[in-house]
Amino acid sequence: MVKNTIERCVACQAFGRANAPEPIATTNMPKHPWRVLYVDFYGPLPSNDYLLVVIDRYPRFPDVEIVRFTKASVVIPKLDKIFAVHGIPEVLKSDNGPPFDGDEYKQYLKSLGIKPEFSTPLWPQCNAQVEIFMQPLGKALKTAKIEGRPWKQELN
After folding, report:
1. What are the pLDDT digits (tens) for 135-148?
2. Calpha distance 130→38 (Å, rounded)
3. What 3 state SS string does 63-126 have?
4. pLDDT tens, residue by residue, 53-90
5. Are 26 and 9 in contact (CB under 8 A)?
6. Are 83 and 112 in contact (CB under 8 A)?
7. Taking all residues of the chain, what is their mean pLDDT, rounded to a whole number?
8. How many contiguous H segments (helices) and E segments (strands) does the chain have?
9. Is 119 contained in some domain?
């Protein structure tokens, strides 16, 4: 009955939330660094590049790589580079967008024994570790542009 009333209510349809927020659930902090990682893209930038952002859940340490495309064939070598420095994680959390939803990416993770976890579609807050980092990253890149500095310099 409530559902029917809401479905017929013009004001409810016009001003109601399209996507109800997912209930907040606590996640356990890993006991060691580099166990659980979050990954996402920032961009496109004016240069048509993207930034592949990888954040460690434990110390919230970011790793940022410049990529030209958001395809698995471009992302996988960048992840290999990051993993060569820090080691292979147990879990890699991402959104459901390309390339993270593709077979090539999933096979890559499987071959390394990494468990993929995906955030709720249309709810980027589920990948909050990366989304929080995107704000100061964007501010730094915009500041560099305003001050006439190369944006790549801000990544060091």
Report:
1. 899 999 999 889 99
2. 6
3. EEEEECCCCHHHHHHHHHHHHHHHCCCCEEEECCCCCCCCHHHHHHHHHHCCEEEECCCCCHHH
4. 999 987 888 999 999 999 999 999 999 999 999 999 99
5. no
6. yes
7. 84
8. 5, 5
9. yes
18-32, 39-53, 60-74, 85-99: the lowest-pLDDT one: 18-32
* Residue 149 tokens, joined: 């500095």
Residue 13 lies in a domain: no
Q: Is residue 9 part of a domain?
A: no
Number of structural domains the chain divides into: 1
Residue 129 lies in a domain: yes
Confirm if 130 and 40 have CB atoms less than 8 A apart.
yes
- Give the Cα-Cα-Cα angle 53, 33, 52 (nearest 5 degrees): 10
Q: Which domain holds residue 32?
A: 23-153
Pairing of the two strands 36-42 and 91-94: parallel
Cis before residue 44, ω within 30 degrees of 0? yes
2 pLDDT exceeds 90?
no
CATH number at residue 114: 3.30.420.10
Angle between helices 103-112 and 72-86 (to 10 degrees): 20
Rounded to whole angstroms, how far apart are CA atoms 52 and 73? 13
